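Hey, I'm writing a tutorial for new members on how sequence and structure tokens pair up, and I'd like a real worked example in the thread rather than a made-up one. If someone can provide the structure for the chain below, I'll link this post from the tutorial.
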Amino acid sequence: MKQNVLAINSGNTHTDIGIVDCDQRIARVQQKIATCDLALLLDKYLDQLALKGPLPVHASLASVVPENNEFVCRVLDSRGIKITLVQGDLSLPFSNSYDNPKALGPDRIADLLYVYAVCAKKTSLVIDAGTAITIDLLKDGTVFLGGIIMPGLSLQSKALHSYTAKLPLIDHTGFKGDFPGLSTQACIGAGVVYGVAGALGHIVSKMTEGKPVQIFATGGAWPFISGYTTLDAVYIPDMTLIGTALAHRD
């Protein structure tokens, strides 16, 4: 039986911190903060957690912002919390077919650990829709076969605005499904949203080759994207955080 684990999933935009029940695979207490504020707020949030009960003695950190790792490790060490870093050299319960296994991102490892735990011996595909969108394939629950990385909705919108002279920055959440677009803003929205939805459908079809596969999805943009795709995915909002905790082994 595993004890609770303090999990920290630090993404490009947001950092999720929570206490995860690894047996039930549930994040029982959690907080989302801006990653840029992590150094300012981590100690404060841990103090708040400690008021509710003893902090776990083990923690796991999955961070795509490596410059934060040293600070987080120092804070946890000062509290006597042992930490597991989710990174490419971590011993995994499945084989890693990446050309350079150590280069596989911590967030993707965490997602795969979750899928491995809930879908043992079955072929699964996981979509993580955040700043970037990743799709990864775990065959028979034993072999990571690789995946794709593409820019997310907000990143595409920002790129169109930043690298052109006149295209405005749009908020894709305001897109109402207009197609074809009848304004510049609507055209950008249609291109970005339907482009991502179409790309996901094509990529998943190419990955699965028509074979039955369990699809899991996570990431803050997925609830929006799911309205524009026919993919049948199980949405797990806390997947990466829970998978981060599962990296800890007794």
